[in-house]
Specification:
heterodimer; A: about 525 residues; alpha+beta; rod-shaped; B: about 140 residues; alpha/beta; 5 helices; globular
Chain lengths: ~525, ~140
């Protein structure tokens, strides 16, 4: 059954607007069929009405002709004869038309004039000709035409009779008996014609009724068939569309859940088919992207693990020799006090200081790397409280210094409490350290508005820094001050920057040398 | 006299510990084992020490967490599992308070911890705390 399949293929491959207009066209087809059938029916019925009317004219004219002829028989009035001839013209005209139309290749002009002589309205004649030519074989029409033919034969007889009577009357005085015979003959013809005339019109009537019911049936059947066909096509198309859309939807939700198993089975070339194919491409891409993501994720996790292990061994293996250097230097200092001169003792002290710095550096490095691997929680943190505790501890570790501390009331932040603690510790430790030289040191902590955002700030009136080198501030191990005046590994601000970045915020600073510095941060 | 067992593998650390012991006057009380297996053999009186039996004189173990081969925590576990040494005080030596092994050790029954290098003062306190003087 190849043929239906290729039609199905062709229809399914139409674009969606085309499919929709196909359905619209099918319904138009229904309407068109109705209209066509209607027109056809009306046309035929009108023509048969014309024939009935024509028959009426025919029989009236025939009766008139007979009447005139009878009168002529008695009156011998030539005028009656002329009137008889005139009236006879009607059936003769129709006869002429019929004869012409029964030829295989009729001269329609002759037929037309014939019907016109038959008294038919010019506007009906075309339909009458058409009906006879087209449907002459239909039973009703054939039967009616038969009656007509028989009538025409009697007309011919009447014609002969008329001629005979006319000849007799114009040539002499026919006897009464002759006239009576003439009359009888004419009346016989007349009597024979009447049933034929009736039969003609009643047959046409039957035919018209029959046609009416046939047309009705045909209309019902044809429109039902076309209607049903259109509905079927519409239904198939919409079912096809819904099925494809449904598949697409199902596939989409599966892919969203990570299940790539359902293979789309959409073959058509319309918009949905294109969509499905694009979708499949997208799913394939997504799948490989996910695989890539999983790979990267696994790699990152593996790298993290390696880093963890690395840090662990770094902290052990780097510290062990440091312990030895520091420990034995101390031993030397203690045990060889008497043997060492001041310079020797100082040398050993330098060694110890250097190793302690290195130990601090290792700790800082480890903390920096550890920081980014910790889990991040976000909650409300009372930073004011944290700051107070930090300042308190700074004070207790360094009781000789008097530092004024001002903080805004009630400050909270949304962030990781442990990480914020570390950041604040570093910022305050810096403020504390760099105000060492100022007799009236002051540290401020508060909230302000900078560049259209709310930001925390820590301000000190310490030694400040050169704004030209501000870019180095937050880089690890970059120091802007002499290590002798202000000891430190330079890791503190790098820690702060990393913590603030983890919170999705920004940290920046402004300063003036010997006037002080302000550190701002957002979260 | 020997009542302290130090389980440590690093030579420098061992030497520095000896110096601390010396300053505290406790050098004679010290025995050093260089790895976990040897330490356990000595404690339980097995292997090379089978003839000497259980080392019942040991009253304090200083355990370095960073040992070669058998890890420090494993040594601790075995000490705690053996009924002879179940109650033996074990002080672990660690490099920092945040060391993960130290944190796990807290759940495994360590008695205390010291940060390396062993500070002589702290160690003396610990000794006095855990080692009862042997009545003559």
């Amino acid at each position: 059954m190849r043929f239906p399949f290729s039609i199905r293929r062709a229809v399914l491959d139409l674009s969606i607007p085309q499919k929709l207009s196909l359905m619209a066209w099918l319904f138009c087809l229904v309407v068109f069929c109705l209209l066509a059938l209607n027109y056809f029916g009306m046309d035929i019925l009108s023509s048969s009405r014309a024939y009935v009317g024509g028959e009426g004219l025919w029989s009236k004219a025939q009766k008139e002709a007979v009447l005139r002829l009878e009168r002529y028989i008695w009156s011998h009035d030539e005028r009656e004869y002329q009137a008889y001839l005139e009236a006879l013209g009607v059936p003769l005209g129709d006869h002429q038309a019929r004869l012409e139309l029964e030829k295989p290749r009729p001269n329609f002009t002759i037929a037309w004039t014939g019907f016109q002589r038959g008294g038919n309205h010019p506007k009906d004649i075309a339909g009458m000709i058409h009906l006879l030519r087209r449907f002459g074989k239909v039973s009703y029409i054939r039967r009616a035409v038969d009656f007509w033919r028989q009538g025409d034969m009697y007309i011919a007889q009447l014609q002969n009779m008329g001629e005979l009577i006319h000849r007799e009357i114009t040539s002499g005085h026919p006897s009464l008996k002759t006239l009576e015979t003439f009359l009888k003959a004419v009346q016989e013809i007349n009597a024979s014609l009447t049933p034929l005339e009736n039969a003609f019109s009643s047959t046409l009537g039957e035919g018209a009724r029959w046609l009416k019911s046939v047309l009705l049936m045909t209309m019902i059947v044809v429109t039902s068939a076309v209607f049903a066909g259109s509905l079927l096509v519409a239904f198939l198309i919409s079912r096809h569309l819904c099925r494809e859309i449904d598949q697409l939807r199902l596939s989409a939700s599966r892919v969203a859940a990570g299940d790539y198993s359902l293979a789309l089975d959409v073959e058509s070339k319309d918009e949905i088919g294109d969509l499905a194919r694009s979708f499949q491409q997208m799913a394939v891409q997504r799948q490989s992207a996910e695989r890539l993501k999983d790979e990267l994720y696994a790699n990152a996790a593996a790298a993290n693990q390696e880093l963890e292990a690395f840090s662990y061994s770094v902290s052990h293996d780097l510290r062990a020799p440091l312990r030895a250097i520091d420990g034995f230097s101390r031993e030397l200092l203690e045990n060889c006090e008497s043997v060492l001169d001041d310079r020797g003792k100082n040398d050993l002290r330098r060694i110890r200081a250097a190793t302690q710095r290195m130990a601090q550096l290792i700790d800082d490095l480890l903390e920096l790397s550890h920081l980014s691997r910790r889990e991040f929680v976000r909650q409300t943190v009372d930073v004011r409280r944290q700051a107070e505790d930090i300042v308190q501890k700074l004070r207790s570790n360094d009781p000789e210094r008097s530092v004024e501390y001002v903080a805004a009331s009630a400050m909270t932040a949304q962030g990781d409490p442990r990480l914020l603690q570390i950041a604040l510790e570093n910022l305050f430790a810096n403020a504390w350290k760099f105000t060492r030289m100022k007799p009236s040191a002051k540290i401020e902590f508060g909230l302000t508005r900078q560049h259209d955002v709310n930001a925390f700030f820590i301000r000190d009136n310490g030694v400040g820094f050169n704004m030209a080198y501000a870019a180095k501030l937050f880089k690890p191990f970059q120091r802007l001050h002499d290590g002798k005046d202000f000891p430190g590994t330079g890791i503190g601000l790098a820690l702060v920057e990393r913590i603030i970045r983890r919170h999705g915020g920004r940290v920046w600073a402004e300063a003036e040398e010997n006037k002080g510095a302000v550190f701002y941060f957002t979260l | 006299m020997i009542d302290v067992l130090l389980i440590e593998d690093n030579d420098d650390d061992i030497e520095l510990s000896r110096r601390s012991f010396e300053k505290a006057g406790l050098l004679a009380h010290l025995r050093v084992a260089r790895d976990g297996e040897d330490a356990l053999d000595y404690l339980f009186g097995r292997g090379a020490y089978a003839s000497q039996g259980v080392a019942s004189s040991i009253q304090l173990v200083l355990l370095d967490l960073n040992l070669p081969q058998m890890p420090g925590l494993e040594v601790l576990r075995q000490i705690r599992m053996n009924k002879e040494t179940r109650a033996l005080p074990v002080v672990v030596l660690t490099i920092s308070r945040q060391e993960p092994d130290l944190l796990q050790g807290f759940t495994m029954g360590i008695s205390d911890y010291l940060i390396k290098p062993i500070d002589q003062g702290r160690f003396s306190k610990m000794y006095k705390k855990y080692v009862k003087a042997v009545s003559a």
